[in-house]
Write a structure and sequence with these properties.
alpha+beta, 19 helices, 37% helix, single chain, Neutral Protease, domain 2, 613 residues, 22 strands, binds ligand BES, Immunoglobulin-like, 22% strand, binds zinc ion
Length: 613
């Protein structure tokens, strides 16, 4: 790619060209009193060249007790700590491996209470208030704080695990469940066993321990959560099997066995995370009307794009997310119609505009394929890989003959690269070879601009606005309303609108110059948005109020960033609060006070957003 042929992963110390992990066997003992996991990780590694005599693994804040190779104690050393990569762990093999030969390297270690992958919740922080809770979030490069491993998406391995936890609690992992028993070493504990037989990258390793219950929601699906939410979740995500079947029709068989959902506590930093066999989701999706279930369609789609075909490094993250958004919207198209897909795509384009504005139109992190050699993937995260990626795929769909033709390509792409990791160059070669009779069309695409230039894409798609027209009209009325016209608004304006259309209406207003204070006050009078629970609506409404400098919104926004920690909501609200002079000090105070109980990733990013580090 434009002089960057090297597909090595600058965010990992490990060298996949020297050695590659084939299997990982984990033995974990979860200790809530000290907030550590005491662990053994046995990696079956395979030499990728002759004469291999050492290997380097990624770690972060791990205490290493011992290393063995094929059962014999081995020398190991830890290097210097890097700001976001952590610390390389080099293990010396007491023998030399030939290319293709395997060895079992076992590391005994414990995690730090500050492990960036883990959030330890006290009983008071849970819905049930009775039992503590632990969950992991490894994407992009946090797995190394839980397991010493080749923490790069270019390496895939199977895994199995035995997890010891207090016997009142349940452990789940991103794998199929493989039995449970009383812990023979400690009768107050239970061991849960897991087996993942499909090779997958380290960032998909996931663990949760809590007082969990489940409900069956489909032939291969359960929803898990604390008992307080489990019935609401079973209703909200009722369409899961329909979505899985739709996805299989589009992409081929689902190979992972079970597809379960886990509804996490509100501090979970993302909307959803595609952990194999067990998608993790935020409780902010529990809107009561299934209106936010596109996130489930998205995570289901990752079972193909991301989990089967994986970005080789985080610079090619758009291959995961752009394709997944495309498939998510194809599932929406199947379940509703083409007009609905067009409507959702309009919303996505606006998210892209906002991301470009937030980063700045010349910021290289707004490239579809950014250079990340000195950048923490968490700092690079934005809607750009999602929405610029989608816009490119949609543009190609239009050029090449429409959704059915383009799905033919995507299905072939998945078949060709299943179980492997790919770069943008691999993807592009595959595209040219699939459409070898349409090379003149493909050659008209300005690839360099799409991949390697910052800002908005070189081509703006033309989406059908019929489902957005009411939103556009209402937005226009509010942004131009004179004092006299304010009395013309009424409850009825929203009567015919779906939740998604209300979201769109508010998103459109957020692109306009801030509303007058009078206007937002009147909007509250007629639409009563202060009382709305739907997180996507509430989030946009509060931003609108803060931008209009409405002081009454300050406590509401501070509450929203405190009671939930989904970064999509928490970070922009914190930034808006910070930019509101009158709220700034209170905002910083709130953050400093809550930081100890926040998710480590969210806390780190909000601290940067508030210029505290
Ligand atoms: N894999 C991502 C979440 C993620 C990305 C975690 C990068 C850590 C680093 C997940 O599939 C995702 O994209 N979630 C979105 C869903 C939305 C696009 C429908 C989210 O969290 O909002
Ligand atoms: Zn995703």
């Amino acid at each position: 790619m434009a002089g960057r042929e090297d597909a090595s992963d600058s965010s990992s110390f490990s060298a996949p060209r020297e050695c590659s992990t084939r299997h990982l066997a984990l033995t974990l003992r979860v200790a809530f009193d000290t907030r550590v996991i005491q662990a053994r990780a046995a990696l079956t590694v395979e030499a990728q060249r002759d004469g291999l005599s050492a290997l380097t693994l990624d770690t972060r804040d791990l205490k290493i007790h011992k290393a063995t190779t094929n059962g014999l104690e081995a020398k190991f050393s830890l290097g210097d700590k890097h700001s976001f990569k952590g610390t390389p762990l080099t293990i010396t093999l007491p023998f030399k491996l030939l290319r293709g030969e395997q060895a079992v390297v076992e590391v005994s270690y414990e995690t730090s209470p500050e492990a960036s992958a883990l959030q330890w919740l006290t009983a008071e922080q849970t819905a049930g208030k009775e039992h503590p809770y632990l969950f992991s979030q490894c994407q992009a490069i946090h797995c190394r704080s839980m397991v010493p491993c080749q923490d790069t998406p270019s390496v895939k391995s199977t895994y199995c695990a035995r997890v010891s936890v207090p016997k009142e609690l349940v452990a789940l992992m991103s794998a199929n469940r493989d039995g449970e028993m009383i812990d023979a070493q400690d009768g107050s504990r239970k061991i849960y066993c897991f087996r993942q037989t499909v090779p997958m990258p380290s960032y998909l390793i996931a663990l949760v321990v809590g007082s969990l219950e489940s409900r069956v929601i489909g032939p291969r699906s359960r929803v898990w959560s604390e008992k307080e939410m489990v019935d609401a979740a079973a209703y909200e995500f009722e369409e899961t099997e329909t979505m899985l079947k739709t996805a299989e029709k589009l992409m081929g068989p689902y190979v992972w066995g079970q597809y379960d959902l886990l509804v996490l506590p509100p501090s979970f930093p993302y909307g959803g995370m595609e952990n194999p066999c067990l998608t993790f989701i935020t409780p902010t999706l529990l809107a009561g009307d299934k209106s936010l279930s596109n996130v489930i369609a998205h995570e289901i789609s990752h079972s193909w794009t991301g989990n089967l075909v994986t970005n080789k490094t985080w610079e090619h993250f758009w291959l995961n997310e752009g394709h997944t958004v495309y498939l998510e919207r194809m599932i929406g198209r199947s379940m509703f119609d083409e007009k609905f897909r067009q409507f959702v795509a309009i919303g996505g384009w606006k998210d892209l505009l906002e991301a470009v504005e937030t980063f700045g139109a010349t910021n290289p992190l707004t490239n579809l394929v950014p250079v990340l050699s000195d950048t923490d993937p968490d700092d690079a995260f934005s809607s750009v890989p999602y929405e610029k990626g989608f816009a490119l795929l949609y543009h190609l769909e239009e050029l090449l003959g429409g959704p059915d033709v383009f799905m033919g390509f995507l299905k072939a792409y998945i078949q060709i690269f299943a179980y492997s990791s790919v770069t943008t160059e691999d993807w592009k070669k595959c595209l040219y070879s699939y459409f070898n009779n349409k090379a003149e069309i493909l050659n008209k695409v300005d690839w360099k601009a799409w991949f390697h230039s910052p800002g908005i894409p070189p081509f703006k798609p033309n989406y059908d606005t019929s489902m957005a027209d009411d939103c556009i009209a209402l937005c226009k009325r509010w942004s131009t309303a004179t004092d006299a016209e304010l009395s013309c608004f009424g409850e009825a304006d929203l009567k015919q609108m779906s939740s998604q259309q209300k979201i769109e209406f508010l998103a459109l207003l957020l692109l306009e110059p801030p509303l007058c204070l009078k206007n937002v006050k009147r909007m509250q009078e007629v639409y009563k948005f202060n009382g709305i629970k739907n997180a996507e609506i509430r989030f946009r409404w509060l931003r609108l109020c803060l931008r209009a400098q409405w002081e009454e919104a300050i406590p509401l926004a501070l509450q929203m960033v405190t009671v939930q920690g989904r970064m999509k909501f928490t970070r922009p609200l914190y930034r808006d609060l910070y930019n509101f002079e009158k709220a700034r000090q209170q905002t910083i105070d709130t953050f400093v006070k809550n930081k100890p109980s926040m998710h480590p990733i969210t806390a780190a990013l909000v601290a940067k957003d508030l210029h505290l580090v």
